[in-house]
């Protein structure tokens, strides 16, 4: 090899050196690509080098937990200063590596249950946050400037050659593996089983260096299951307003829902209230959505035609298998999810995102990052953003665009509907509406370049509370926008600061609409409208195909 040739393949040569070290150290513990689980720490010591970028698969649901625990047992003197790339921080081990000095830098999307601890570690200087990404943004950077040197992923099964079967919870695996494998990186997969023949090949063996059968199946969280018994009558009222005042008004056919009880209420009102309004076949036909159990009655009623999913949901496997016309199901009978493709679908192919938040300010900016918690955003910034690159029309997109540009001499274009659906007060009577987001203070504390805003106000088209709907598309100027937000903020300090005359004027113009303006009788907003009133009702609606996790089986 001459000097010129050596200049261009340093990554490949370094990869070869790492693999050679592993072969020499593991000996008989390595059978082809299959590594004995008792030797996983030694394998990591051999293939990792100080300062490596390491992508540990931690999705909304599927977790490479065995590999994550192995990382925490590494010697920081040998492989310290790791730069961790994680979609979701959900397990203690995801932060233990920082506490123990094994890792020092973090790029991520969502932290959920680890949000409080993450904030403390950042304030203590034990971890440096590169950026808080949306999922699609993080995946994109894997292929540009955050390419993993080593990827630790999870799958259902592997064969002895190293082919992987990811099953219904494919989630982030393809994006992680492809970026790593084709940039001279090393891919290690933990699997529940090593078998002779796979149901299908989701990741080819040529992209995988090592496979280890975990002593226990990987951890998976039923994140998208909402018990209908927990839905309140206020949420039923808000769901009625959403269906009549937004879904029907714009004829929204392609959409994404958040994961709260408020959107679960909408899903459970489709076969009842929406059907009574004659909306079947006119709204909510195509979804980018995890297989929410609350969607079962709407599927059975014929409202839902297709669902492409970011990931799966525990207990829904048999139901999905029995409904291949609706879900993306392979010849093996199991669904294939893909978070990157579903994020792209939610960004470009959906006409509406409707979800919730923890705080909204007077400009309509919203965030789930509050004092003492750095929660991240997951996919909401892509779901809840107007895709400026979109060019294909739909009635909902065009109508929203006309409203946004009414009276302005601009070239015609559409706009995505982005709806924030919140009760005016959150738990512990914390107001959802604030003059200034906590995100500003968090940015100052953590040394962030910009405050961690989840959805920017100029992307938000509607704010829906128990007080009514504020259509921000119809606002002309910042003052009207502020008063529209105050007008649905209820008895929060922000709401009490409204200009009553201006709010009534906005109501006369239809910018603000109360339930009675929509022809909704509040007395009808009862739990009787829910197509299923508890988990047993969802099981019954599925014909017994849905099998809820034990924690939800309360009968």
Automatic annotation (TrEMBL):
Residues 386-405 are annotated as: Disordered. It comes from the Bacteria. PANTHER family: ACETATE COA-TRANSFERASE YDIF, MALONATE DECARBOXYLASE ALPHA SUBUNIT. This is Malonate decarboxylase subunit alpha. It comes from Massilia agri.
